[in-house]
Amino acid sequence: MLSSILSKSSCAACKFCCSFRRQSLWETPLFPPEVVEKLSKPNEYGVVGEFCDGQIILGGYKTGDPEEEVPCTFLDPHKGCILKPEDKPFDCSIWPLRIMNKDGKLVIALTPTCPSVGAVPSQALVNLVKNGLGDKIFEYAKTHPEIIKEYREGFLIILKRTK
User: Fold this and answer.
1) Contacts of 85 (CB under 8 A, 6+ apart)
2) What pLDDT, in 10s, does the model give residues 90-124?
3) Which of 117, 129, 132, 162 has the fewest other C-beta atoms within 10 Å?
4) How far apart are CA 105 and CA 24, in angstroms?
5) Has residue 80 been placed in a domain?
6) What residues have CB less than 8 Å from 7, skipping those under 6 apart?
7) Is residue 112 situated within a structural domain?
8) Is 158 helix (H, G, I), strand (E, B) or coil?
9) 3 in a domain, yes or no?
């Protein structure tokens, strides 16, 4: 969804959004039930995921360090995400944006941790969100409320739901 702003090559080289520290497990993407069912058993990807309430459970932490990062089960270190677009979580499709609940209102916010975007969005990203992408995100959230995360300090609000 953001391919006009973020190049696939810069994202593939970084992969920051595809690895998680223990302290940021709240950020792991949520998968729809039908995709969880597909990915929880032997599948075309050759990787079986473990899920809890639609959220992927990551294993492989080797230390007690909260800063240690573990990659997503579906991340190939050489190819990037192995999931087809229809199986990729919506959270991943809109990264580094997040749909969040702030004081009872839906907002689209920019995560401050994306190395490719930084903490300040480009005007092109703001325009993309305000000229259609934001409506798609709000619409998806309406039918999939489980993807709405609680607002956290440090996220820059780009668009508020006005309707």
Assistant:
1) 93
2) 988 898 899 999 999 999 999 888 877 765 667 88
3) 162
4) 23
5) yes
6) none
7) yes
8) strand
9) no
Question: What is the token pair recorded at 124?
Answer: 């092109």
Per the CB < 8 A criterion, the answer to whether 90 and 140 are in contact is: yes
Q: Among residues 40, 152, 44, which one has the least CA distance to residue 98?
A: 152
Residue 29 maps to a domain: yes
Domain of residue 34, residue span: 8-160
Residues 13-62 pLDDT 10s: 777 888 888 777 778 888 989 999 999 999 999 999 999 888 888 878 88
Question: Looking at residue 88, what DSSP letter applies?
Answer: S
Burial 37-70 (b: 16+ CB within 10 A, else e): ebbeeeeebeeebebeebbbebeeeeeeeeeebb
Q: Closest Cα to residue 50, out of 74, 75, 18? A: 74
Residue indicated by tokens 């309430």: 53
Identity of residue 119: A
Non-local CB neighbours of 112 within 8 Å, separated by 6+ positions: 119, 154, 155, 156
Domain tally for the chain?
Answer: 1
Helix (H) or strand (E) holding 36: helix 33-39
DSSP-assigned beta bridge partners for residue 109: 98, 157
